Amino acid sequence: MRKITKIAVLTSGGDAPGMNPCIRAVVRTAIYNKLEVVGIRQGYQGLIDNNMYEMNTRSVSNILNLGGTILKTARCLPFRTDEGMETAYNNIKAQGIDGIVVIGGDGTFTGALRFSQRFPDIAVMGVPGTIDNDLYGSTYTLGFDTATNTVIEAIDKIRDTADAHDRLFFIEVMGRDSGAIALRAGISCGAEAILLPERATAIDDLIESLKAGQFNKKSSSIVIVAEGDKSGGVYDLAERVRGQVKFYDIKVTILGHLQRGGSPSAFDRILGSRLGFAAVNALIAGKSQMMVGLEANHIKLTTLEEALTQHQFKLEDDLMQMSEILSI
Ligand code: ATP
């Protein structure tokens, strides 16, 4: 069995609330187990630039409540090249690192898997850190809960003004190709319609349901549009509806990057702690090329290969159907 004496931790891709609690757990679990631990700044870019520092128990004091990531993150093109990976490998070897915890989304895992297939003497362990909740092998990814709560708080405020003015709001939320945030936020805010990338949008049906809402004396309407929705963008959608729905004043809001920020929720702090703890224990147990996730409230290891090939978010038809009924 491979013996791990020194590990590194990095965050990569889009930042997500909960990354800091996870970094804290990685560092302290490593030190508890008498491993040395190194923080890599700016994701894979830090591996290439040798931008690393030794961490101790105090390096991660008072970060549980912080959004973002104290290690910074980056989207790093050179890591996709053979030369970039080789430079990273040489820097890792020079530091005596034998295992890396990578916290990120599917792109980060693709990089980790390619790297470790090429250099199998370095063990890699993935932690799903993305607000998109789009990875196979974990019911929840780090940041999804906090981001959804942030979206809900914003939409509740928009609902107040929508109601006061008899307005219809089209609100775009994040999630890339996944409608996970849109669906949960839609249920939580009583959205009149939720448009998701996983489902083709029938404009005629949307207009009919808005008309039915007006007939039922609704004083406002909220349509949540996932950013990956394929009906041509939120402004275009609003224009097409404007021509046929005269009873509401129509407005558009794109929530944007505020969805990534903020102090992690209790759920994400606990999830980050559990996944970070489990990731280090898995490395110590000799595992590599895997992702730690949470399924049915238990830690589960999934191969990176499987997490990546089956990562498509499946539309939860039952939730969608319930949301449509509850918003009549
Ligand atoms: P999020 O889901 O929040 O966007 P992500 O991890 O999917 O997070 P990406 O920007 O797609 O974010 O990927 C993060 C980094 O992983 C990239 O900047 C790049 O350095 C590395 N990466 C992505 N794909 C590959 C690949 N095919 N080969 C090597 N490295 C890759």
UniProtKB/TrEMBL annotation:
Any one biological process term the GO annotation gives: canonical glycolysis
Residues bound to ADP: 24-28, 159, 190-192, 218-220
Description of activity control: Allosterically activated by ADP and other diphosphonucleosides, and allosterically inhibited by phosphoenolpyruvate.
Obligatory cofactor(s): Mg(2+)
UniProt enzyme class: transferase
Residues that coordinate or bind ATP: 14, 75-76, 105-108
UniProt pathway: Carbohydrate degradation; glycolysis; D-glyceraldehyde 3-phosphate and glycerone phosphate from D-glucose: step 3/4
Family: Belongs to the phosphofructokinase type A (PFKA) family. ATP-dependent PFK group I subfamily. Prokaryotic clade 'B1' sub-subfamily.
Protein function: Catalyzes the phosphorylation of D-fructose 6-phosphate to fructose 1,6-bisphosphate by ATP, the first committing step of glycolysis.
Protein name (database record): ATP-dependent 6-phosphofructokinase
The species this protein was found in: Mucilaginibacter gilvus
Gene giving rise to this polypeptide: pfkA
